[in-house]
TrEMBL record:
PROSITE patterns: ZF_UBP. Residues 40-140 form the UBP-type domain. This is UBP-type domain-containing protein. Keywords: Metal-binding, Zinc, Zinc-finger. InterPro entries: Znf_RING/FYVE/PHD, Znf_UBP. It comes from Manihot esculenta (Cassava). The lineage of its organism: Eukaryota, Viridiplantae, Streptophyta, Embryophyta, Tracheophyta. It comes from the Eukaryota.
Amino acid sequence: MANKAAGSSSSTSLGQGFEDEDELMMTIKGSESGWVEARTSCDHLGSLSSDLSHIPTPNTPCNRCHHPSENWLCLSCKDVLCSRFVNKHMLQHYHHTNHCVALSYSDLSVWCFTCDAYLDAQVIMQLRPVYETAYILKFGEAPPFRTVELPQDSTSTKN
Ligand SMILES: [Zn+2]
Ligand SMILES: [Zn+2]
Ligand SMILES: [Zn+2]
């Protein structure tokens, strides 16, 4: 696959910009294969727990194998389970219960197993409270929310 932004013309004056972009992406998310786009919508939030302001602390061990850290919080039943890189208990939980949305206590990312994608917890309103609670539990302060323009199309076009 050679779909890198290869310089179409051989003008070297555009080179610097690309380097900066790469670096920024690495900083935002250093996951396995580099930058992963987080979804800003998900159709599987209907089963989220209604009380996500009370969640287990980020150092809660896996409820199955007691793996001590970097576990996932099921946002439907608030079970704490280990990752696919440990004993896959969160993944098994999804297969057994269809609880598909989980929050990582290692980096506070939110994953939807059904979407097979990360969800942007700062944009999706249903996820913001639990993201904020988890952030406070982990870091002791509220997260620096970026200002988000909500996609509210006021369909009143001025004539
Ligand atoms: Zn486990
Ligand atoms: Zn669950
Ligand atoms: Zn989803």
